Amino acid sequence: MMTIEEYKERSDRSKKMLLWFSMISFVMVFAGLTSAYVVSKSRADWNDFDMPSAFIISTIVMLLSSVTFYLAKKAIKEDKHSLTTGYLLATLFLALAFVYFQFEGFGQLIDLGLYWTGPTSTITTSFLYVVVVTHLLHLLGGLICILVIIYNHFKQKYNSSQTIGIELGATFWHFLDFLWLYLFLFLYFFK
What we know:
Elements: H1 4-40, H2 53-77, H3 81-111, H4 123-154, H5 164-189
Helix pairs in contact: 1-4, 1-5, 2-3, 2-5, 3-4, 4-5
């Protein structure tokens, strides 16, 4: 017969493993997209572009959000609930700022005449939009995750002995951060 602690430990391990499998599948999607980008770069109709400044700002914001999420996880492990609340809300604010600057980046691309569809679109901008929008869809999952964690935190579901929700959320958020950093550096330097 399994004890409650053993059951909790197995359950937590299962949840972590499912998260890792999901993240690996995301890596495969973006590996495929960046591979297609590399192959398509040899096309005659390929146009290089400069990365919009809003994407640079959004990258800095995303890195800061990873720091605040890490601090939230650290604070809950020390049972500092009000500090955890502050860090979780800061993470949410920074996540929303990231989304804002992503759309600002799209606006800057449009201002440069780089459209993702239509008669003036190019294969280059179409790829850029597909990569960034795909990341934004994954980020939507991250935002939902943060909202659920904040909700559960306000319901007092987390403490120093019960942190699995925040741990999973932080792992996923750091993964999204790493994924965006990879995409940003790839698009910035692969010209």
